[in-house]
Design brief:
The chain is built from 14 helices and twelve strands. With 419 residues, the chain is of the alpha/beta class. The chain folds into two domains: 146 residues, Leucine Dehydrogenase, chain A, domain 1 (Rossmann fold, 3-Layer(aba) Sandwich); 153 residues, Rossmann fold, CATH 3.40.50. 51% of the residues are buried. The structure holds nicotinamide-adenine-dinucleotide. The site of nicotinamide-adenine-dinucleotide (NAD) has 26 residues, from helix 7 and strand 7.
Amino acid sequence: MLMTKSTGNAYDVALENFDTAADAMGLDKDTREMIKYPERILMVTVPVRMDDGQIHRFEGYRVQHSQVRGPAKGGIRFHPQVTLDEVKALATWMTWKCAVVNIPFGGAKGGITCDPKHMSKGELERMTRRYTSAILPLIGPEQDIPAPDVYTNSQTMAWIMDTYSMTKGYPIPGVVTGKPISLGGSLGRNEATGRGVFYTIQCACEHLKIPLKGATVAVQGFGNAGSITAQLLHEAGAKVIAVSDSTGCIYNRNGLNIPELIHMKTLVGHVEGFPESEPLEPADLLALNCDILVPAALENTVHAENAATVRARIVAEAANGPLTPAADRILEAKGIFVIPDILCNAGGVTVSYFEWVQDEQHLFWEAQDIYDRLERVMKTAFRDVLKIHLDRNVSMRIAANILGIGRVAEAVQIRGIYP
Ligand code: NAD
């Protein structure tokens, strides 16, 4: 079992990142008080009849960090380590992320503390439906729109959409994004996060004058975000030399055949044992001599004790919060270029926004249209963040936070306080 070394509470990290950026931009105290903390927090009990006939009680959360710029938006995570603080951190990052890519949403996140890998499909469906009914007062297409996150997928979203619609009495596809296409999902949503990560890596390589063709890549976490990023990098001629998931890590210094690896992972559920690869200690993946490191698993995987071993030239945060602030400082001192999560993985929420717009208009776009719009949004956001990074001589993370927090601050100052 691969362990994630957590050297801190994700919410503390989110607050520290906020304060650092707010200090750098000279944000006044009143505005800080209004935008820093979650607007609403709901904790729910989710009783589920398990397949053995017994009732098991799960704990669930939905946190709305901000609705200043629009309805709250954010994924739902099913994982044994889900805590309220983790959900608060993820909701906070969603607010700044939506603002960085300039889409009219605030931030939210949800989660259930559970181990979906050891639950049947029936148990997952019953848990999802009961959780949906418990958070029903908060969600809706104009209020708060969930989406997939770790260990949830389009099937989970279909159950949420159905439960919500049955309660209201008519179909409401806009209540969630990341749905199956047959229920009003968007083309390109499934691969949107990885595609967005890929566009930002393209921009970073261009900025640093690193040719993407032949560049070496290591990817930690081979789920939705990590596998699609790996596939697009592979197609662009980069060599993905190492990949890990929660069960193990594989390595081939000549490059792994990513389409075949994705095929195998779909069939058997893990990457270990892939032909033409050798096993690697998961911790060693971070320390590989490569051009691009893509942490695409969970929070705090790069921390004070292992950051000094990182040798990549670019770290692209496909995951949310994979670097602790201490790791950030170490990588900065080493001159490593970090593409921060709220910029790097914003492709997912951007295409979620496109999905929501299509649902609201009942008019659906072609895949190429979505890719083109996504590329424009991601590359504009990268350019905006890079400009702040260069003009103000701050890290890319602080620059992204300055951009995101600045847009939310402007909106709240114009709206004022009710009543
Ligand atoms: P996923 O469930 O599809 O995949 C997670 C992957 O990480 C799995 O392959 C799992 O085996 C692996 N993993 C778990 N613990 C690990 C560990 N300690 N070391 C190595 N691998 C490990 O989830 P996802 O949707 O790809 O999400 C991954 C990250 O990307 C999360 O931080 C998530 O918040 C972020 N993210 C996802 C999206 C999206 O649209 N899916 C959008 C933005 C950000």
